[in-house]
Amino acid sequence: MSFDSKKCLYIFVTIQLTLSCGIFGSDESDFPFKATVVSAVEVVFELSAKQGDEITIEQNNNELTTFRLSGSDTLVSATNLQPSTSYRFKATNQSTGATSKVVEATTLDTTSSNFTWQTFSFGEHSSSVLYGVSIIDENNIWTVGEIYMNDSTGQTDDDRYNAVHWNGNEWTLERVSVQFRDRIITPMLNDIFAFSSTDIWLSSGVPIHGNGVNWTQYHLFDMGILNNSDGGIESIWGKNSESMYFGGALGSFAHYDGENWQKIETNTALDFYDTYGNPEQGVVAVAAKQSESSDKAILRIKDKLVTEPLPTAPIPFSISGIWFDSSGVTYVVGSRISIKPNIDAIAPWKIVSKETIDHPYLFSIAANGLNDIVTAGGFGELFHFNGAQWTLYNQNITGNLYDVDIEQDIVVAVGYDGRSAFITIGKRE
Questions:
Q1: What is this structure's pTM?
Q2: Which of 106, 202, 208, 380 could be cross-linked to 395 through a Cys-Cys bond (beta carbons 3.0 to 4.6 Å apart)?
């Protein structure tokens, strides 16, 4: 594991200039020039001029770079900056003599990557696995999947557990059971999204909502919201329990407003693996066909539940997870880690090089901020980005980590090790 500290500039040609919150600068100058802090060591500039114009960017009154525009609008990224440091930047169009206003940007501080890890395994027969995790607080953590244990006599018990709960001292195996038509079932669970200890959403292929004790299943197929050509629900995200989004296989997507359910037309047959949102960028979902093709899609769900496709080029192969902050800086994970300084920019995604972070397929990403990101994936590999460099924590398991969550100084990742369900908890010192 190494961090590419070589100073460089990344230039991306776009068709138009798209701005977002969290960008420093002003359009009042004849030469628009803006800056977005994307980490503890990198600032991205946006400027606009005619194709072929020669541009000089200054950093603290010293020339940083001079280049000729290959397109009418360009994004430029300066790396190898110092954490928690203020910089003053200015751009000059040497071809026209126009000079931008001075833009000040302060890089983020780094966070600690000093985690102590503790691991747990569950399962005594068949194959057990955990697919989802949600940290409510350090004393209230839920994970979901399917776990098979022996009964009190040591014989195999086919009545699965489908959740494991952490109370601050120990893990307790749980059975989340729901009414399905004329019987009670304990289904395999594939995702969880918790607002509090008494407001928890789950998925068993259809949504389940409960207070930690009592649970209600919303069978969207029986309710007529989804039909036989739709796939089951696989991912959950929500603003609150009156604004919930559910992504599924075969392009299926549904919304719940606290009273009514509505199917969202996505115009894709790909499987939705992850959904994320915030007030600034809205709700965005990623879809692909893992292990089947390199097809992929990133969709924003707009007002009136209309979907808008967002650019994916040149992201290679499949994708599985997405996260972004209020300024629009966006991470997508899968075969590679891909970054955009603005989720709405037409500029291509920047693919993080293998020299910076060499990783297997990544299934999930979560973050406290741009300087405190975790991602997990194949072969039990888990990574933390502190704003300047990536650190690998190899869990040394025979299996994958399918989901990861971070809340302040606690990280939890789940998956499987051989035939056992697997949990790892990291506590930052």
A1: 0.91
A2: 380
